[in-house]
Protein: Elongation factor P
Organism: Malaciobacter marinus
Amino acid sequence: MAISMSELKKGLKIQLDGIPYKITEYQHVKPGKGAAFVRCKIKSFLNGKVIEKTFHAGDKCETPNLEQKNMQYLYDDGEMLQFMDTQNYEQIGLTHDQVGDAQNWIIDGMSVDMMFFNEKPITVEPPMTVELKIIDTPPNFKGDSQGGKKPATLESGAVVQIPFHLVEGDVIKCDTRTGEYLEKVK
């Protein structure tokens, strides 16, 4: 199915030249002279590269043949990250490049959405929010209560900025899209 310029929006998945992309930024431009156009930043699902693309009236792009399956992350064997299909227990390995930044947010046993393009696994998306334990952060000092932030390393390896009152061993909720601390889990 063809997608026209007027249907483009942030988060939409499109296919150009046989490669699936996701629109990460979108800007509709109406110059004083000439026809309107859409300027987008699109991220490739295959290699993670972001490129700029301009679409003019009449330009069309295809809807990619993408399928999402819920998978369970098992372990990192050094070369690949291993995932298991929870329906048929089939194991699938993805390289570190294919998984990209998502590997900062996943731990053993966590459920993730694996993206398939033409029935081949290409990448994974972690849940929008994850609850992870703080394993390393500087200690608190007297007077460190006024709204500042300090870095913390989580059990998945991600580093986030957290309020001073949190300590090692606390479990926090983070947004995986922005990498921000949301709240302490009770």
